[in-house]
Design brief:
This protein has helices at about 5-30, 50-75. It is an all-alpha fold and about 80 residues long.
Length: about 80
């Protein structure tokens, strides 16, 4: 069973993910239909970053997964019998 601290961390991660998803959805789906001089545009980065930032995040994620797999494979190697 999870402790209170674990539940608090989990709920904060869920809240952060929900906030990030909402922000990105408004940025990518809603904002192109809003006039360019509307006050809402000042709260968002330029539209080019809506593709660049997730691409960078995907590359970093794949690098971390690859590094983790390499470390696990490296540590699980059995030494040769002659050593």
């Amino acid at each position: 069973m999870a402790t209170g601290a674990d539940q608090a961390v989990g709920m904060s991660l869920v809240g952060f993910s929900l906030l990030l998803f909402t922000y990105y959805t408004v940025w990518v789906i809603v904002l192109p239909f809003v006039d360019g001089d509307h006050v809402l545009h000042k709260y968002f980065l330029p539209r080019e970053y809506s593709v660049i930032l997730p691409g960078i995040a995907a590359v970093v994620l794949l690098l971390c997964i690859g590094a983790f797999a390499a470390v696990v494979i490296w540590k699980s190697r059995k030494p040769k019998k002659g050593d």
